[in-house]
C-alpha cells in the first residue's frame, strides 16, 4: 500500500491576543516568509553592492522600491489577468488588505518597471538597468522560493490528483482534501532555491564582468519555462481557464521565456565579440 503524505500544517504561527482594543493579531507563515525574502534579499544586495563598489546608502531606497513594486505589480496583475471586473467595480480592493491574490507575472512587470524608475537617477553610480536587474533576480529567485513555500503552508495553489508516493493530501483545504495531489508549490519552491544558487555562483565568478542581461535572461527562462510545465500539474486558479487550451499562467509565461532567450543570446554574442576583440 502506497503511503501518501498527509499535509495538515496550520497556516498560522501564533495569535497575539487583543490588547488595549487592538487585535487579536495572527502571525501567518506566508507573511513571515514573504517578509523574510525581502530582509534576506536586502543583505544579499548589500553584499553585491559592497563587492562591486556601489553606494551602500542606496540599499534602503532600493528595498522600498522592491517592496512597493512587487506588491503593487502582483496585486494589479492578479486582478488584470484573473479578475479584471474588480478593477472597474471595486478598484480599492487592489490596494487594501488582505492581499488574497498575488500574481507572479504581475510582480515581474511591477519589479521591472520599478527598477527602471529607480535606475533613471543612478546611472552616474554605474547602476544601469541591466546591471541592477541582473543582480536583483538573485534576490527575486530566493523570494520566489519563500513565497511558494508560503503557498504550501497555506495549502493553496494545489496540484492535480496523483498516485505518486510523494503526493500530498491537503487536509487544511477542504475542497482538495479527498485525494493526494502534486505538491506543486514545493516543486516551484525547490527549483527557485536551486536557481538562486546558480545565479549567485555565476555572478560571484564574474561580478562586474557578468555580461549584461545574462542573469536576467537565465532567470526568465528558468522560472517561466518551468512555470509553463508546472501548470500542467496544477489546478486552474479561476473557472474561465477551464475553457482555454492553456491556462493564463502558461500564456503569460511564453513571452517571458522568449525575452529570456533573447537576453541570453544577446549576452553570449557580446561575450564572443569581446573575446575576438581581445
TrEMBL record:
The keyword Membrane applies. Keywords: Cell membrane, Lipoprotein, Membrane, Transferase, Transmembrane, Transmembrane helix. The keyword Ribosomal protein does not apply. Pathway: Protein modification; lipoprotein biosynthesis (diacylglyceryl transfer). GO terms for cellular component: plasma membrane. InterPro entries: Lgt. The chain crosses the membrane at residues 27-49, 61-82, 94-117, 186-203, 215-233, 245-264. GO terms for molecular function: phosphatidylglycerol-prolipoprotein diacylglyceryl transferase activity. Its EC number is 2.5.1.145. It is a multi-pass membrane protein. It is found in: Cell membrane. It comes from the Bacteria. Signal peptide: none annotated. A 1,2-diacyl-sn-glycero-3-phospho-(1'-sn-glycerol) binds at residue 148. GO terms for biological process: lipoprotein biosynthetic process. Catalyzes the transfer of the diacylglyceryl group from phosphatidylglycerol to the sulfhydryl group of the N-terminal cysteine of a prolipoprotein, the first step in the formation of mature lipoproteins. Belongs to the Lgt family. This is Phosphatidylglycerol--prolipoprotein diacylglyceryl transferase. It comes from Arundinibacter roseus. The lineage of its organism: Bacteria, Pseudomonadati, Bacteroidota, Cytophagia, Cytophagales.
Amino acid at each position: 500500500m502506497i503511503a501518501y503524505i498527509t499535509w495538515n500544517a496550520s497556516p498560522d504561527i501564533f495569535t497575539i491576543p487583543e490588547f488595549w482594543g487592538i487585535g487579536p493579531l495572527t502571525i501567518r507563515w506566508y507573511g513571515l516568509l514573504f517578509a523574510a525574502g525581502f530582509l534576506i534579499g536586502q543583505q544579499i544586495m548589500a553584499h553585491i553592492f559592497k563587492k562591486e563598489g556601489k553606494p551602500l546608502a542606496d540599499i534602503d531606497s532600493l528595498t522600498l522600491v522592491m517592496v512597493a513594486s512587487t506588491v503593487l505589480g502582483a496585486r494589479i496583475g492578479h486582478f488584470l489577468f484573473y479578475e479584471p471586473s474588480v478593477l472597474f467595480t471595486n478598484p480599492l480592493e487592489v490596494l487594501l488588505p488582505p492581499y488574497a491574490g498575488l500574481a507572479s507575472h504581475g510582480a515581474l512587470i511591477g519589479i521591472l518597471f520599478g527598477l527602471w524608475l529607480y535606475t533613471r537617477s543612478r546611472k552616474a553610480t554605474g547602476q544601469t538597468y541591466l546591471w541592477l536587474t541582473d543582480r536583483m533576480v538573485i534576490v527575486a529567485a530566493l523570494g520566489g522560493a519563500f513565497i511558494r513555500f508560503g503557498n504550501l503552508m497555506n495549502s493553496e495553489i494545489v496540484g492535480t490528483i496523483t498516485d505518486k508516493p510523494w503526493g500530498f493530501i491537503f487536509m487544511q483545504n477542504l475542497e482538495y482534501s479527498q485525494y493526494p495531489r502534486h505538491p506543486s508549490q514545493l516543486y516551484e519552491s525547490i527549483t527557485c532555491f536551486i536557481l538562486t544558487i546558480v545565479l549567485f555562483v555565476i555572478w560571484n565568478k564574474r561580478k562586474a564582468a557578468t555580461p549584461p542581461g545574462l542573469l536576467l535572461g537565465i532567470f526568465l527562462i528558468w522560472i517561466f519555462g518551468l512555470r509553463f510545465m508546472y501548470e500542467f500539474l496544477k489546478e486552474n486558479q479561476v473557472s474561465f481557464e477551464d475553457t482555454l487550451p492553456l491556462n493564463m499562467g502558461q500564456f503569460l509565461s511564453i513571452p517571458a521565456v522568449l525575452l529570456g532567450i533573447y537576453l541570453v543570446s544577446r549576452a553570449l554574442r557580446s561575450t564572443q565579440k569581446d573575446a575576438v576583440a581581445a
